[in-house]
Amino acid sequence: MANFSTHLKASTIVSATFSSVLLSMAEVNGFQALGLFIVGALAGLLPDLDSDKSKSLNSLFSIFALLAAGIVLLNNNFDSVIETWLVGAMMYVCFMYVIKPIFEHFTVHRATLHSISAVLMFSILTLHAALLVGVTLYIAVLSSIFIFTGAITHLILDECYSVDIDNKELKASFGTAMKMIDLRYPITSLSQVAITAGGIYFAQPYWTDISSLFTTWSTKLQTLRFLPDLHNLPWQSWTW
């Protein structure tokens, strides 16, 4: 199993690649690309929210608590500095002392959150959460995609670490990371599937627009230039 640092580095690289492609396609501006990059990088830590290590869990929830507080503060106007501080502090306290203990009590490491169904659940919840705070459908869909990409990168990396290349054998942990659902915990797994199905159902009003977005992106990707035009470089026209 890859460690905290390795997961963060991997999701950072993948997220940077995707956000730079969007920037090259002129689909987002610089600020939006930066925001999506941060979302994708942090999403690489999501499957470890059920970590048994208190230090890792505290770090993860501190990061997500600050991110959630930042989103709320940036998308709402408050009348005073004190009010802004209080809302930010309440968000942080809620994550660290309400949501975190619930996760610690009900989750087991490498169980239901370490599955493709959980990744899909995180993605659809991100879509609805983004729309709920007033983000445009365009950015909400991109945020959902970056969440999916970052989280699935985590699962793939853990499976890669389950292969012992030197001894040409599979470790005992092989197959525990990238699984569709965890049948050992049927109630939790079915709950994840139900939440995902519900999220997809309530996203019906946006299906046509989302489909159009994917069609547009697919068309632009086919015409995207990855290599520079060697016959028309900017500095070739410079005069000395």
Automatic annotation (TrEMBL):
It comes from the Bacteria. The keyword Membrane applies. The keyword Membrane applies. Keywords: Membrane, Transmembrane, Transmembrane helix. Signal peptide: none annotated. The chain crosses the membrane at residues 30-49, 56-74, 80-99, 111-131. This is Metal-dependent hydrolase.
